[in-house]
Specification:
Helix content is 34%, strand content 24%. It has helices at residues 30-36, 68-89, 103-114, 157-169, 187-201, and strands at residues 3-6, 15-19, 42-45, 49-51, 54-56, 60-62, 65-66, 96-101, 121-125, 143-149, 173-179. A seven-stranded mixed beta sheet has the order 1-3-2-8-9-10-11, sandwiched between helices. A two-stranded antiparallel ribbon has the order 4-5. Strands 6-7 form a two-stranded antiparallel sheet. Helix 2 packs across helix 3.
C-alpha cells in the first residue's frame, strides 16, 4: 500500500492513522493530523481500490451500497498492513488512533466492527454504518468521536444515530458532534475533534 509516515516528537502520544475520502491520497489529511496532535507520529495510507480512477478503501455497488465481501477483505488487509507498518516504522501498535473521513471513516469503523483491540480510539468524520448483521467485539471504554452534518446528503443523520447506537451497545465511549452542514468538513468540527482528542489522549 502507498503510505506516508512521519515520526512525531512525543513517543507517548498516539500514532495517528489517517484514512482519506474517495478520490483522496495519503497526503490529504496531513493538515488535520497537525491540527489534532502536532507532536504525534503520523501514518497515512492511500486506498488501493480504484473507482473511475479515484482511490478508495473498498468497493461499493452504488452510492451508499457497499460491497460487503470486499469490505471484509479490505478490512483484514488494512489490519494486517497496520501490524506490519508498526514493525517497519517502529511505533506502538497498541497506541494507534484512526482518523478517517467519509470512505476512510467507513473502513476505520469496519476495523472496530470486525476486530477487538485493533485501535486505541477513532475519529470518524461523516461515517456510515459499514456493515450490519454481524456480532461486534467488546469495545468497552473505546473512545470514538463522530463528526456529522445534519444536512449531509451522503451520510444522513439517521445513519449517524444508528452507528452511535451500535457502538454504544458494545460499551464504546462515543461522542457525536453535529454541524448544520453537509458532507464537507468544517473548521468547527475539526476544533471539536481536537478538543476531544486532547481530553482523551493528553
Amino acid at each position: 500500500m502507498i503510505d506516508y509516515f512521519a515520526k512525531g516528537k512525543d513517543e507517548k502520544a498516539p500514532t495517528l492513522f489517517m484514512l482519506h475520502g474517495t478520490g483522496g491520497t495519503e497526503r490529504d489529511l496531513l493538515p488535520i493530523a497537525e491540527h489534532l496532535s502536532p507532536a504525534s507520529s503520523v501514518l497515512s495510507v492511500r486506498g488501493n481500490v480504484l473507482e473511475h480512477g479515484m482511490p478508495r478503501f473498498f468497493r461499493r455497488l452504488a452510492e451508499g451500497v457497499f460491497d460487503e465481501e470486499d469490505l471484509k477483505y479490505r478490512t483484514k488487509e488494512l489490519r494486517d498492513y497496520l501490524d506490519e507498518a508498526a514493525v517497519r516504522y517502529g511505533f506502538d501498535r497498541h497506541n494507534v488512533v484512526a482518523i478517517g473521513y467519509s470512505n476512510g471513516a467507513n473502513i476505520a469503523a469496519s476495523l472496530l466492527f470486525h476486530y477487538e483491540n485493533v485501535l486505541a480510539g477513532a475519529i470518524l468524520f461523516h461515517p456510515m454504518v459499514p456493515i450490519r448483521g454481524i456480532e461486534l467485539p467488546d469495545l468497552t471504554g473505546l473512545p470514538v468521536f463522530i463528526g456529522a452534518g445534519k444536512n449531509d446528503p451522503i451520510c444522513p443523520p439517521e445513519e449517524t444515530s444508528e452507528l452511535e447506537r451500535i457502538l454504544s451497545a458494545q460499551q464504546a465511549d462515543v461522542t457525536v458532534h453535529w454541524e448544520n452542514s453537509g458532507h464537507q468538513l468544517t473548521y468547527a468540527e475539526l476544533t471539536a475533534a481536537a478538543n476531544w482528542f486532547g481530553k482523551r489522549f493528553s
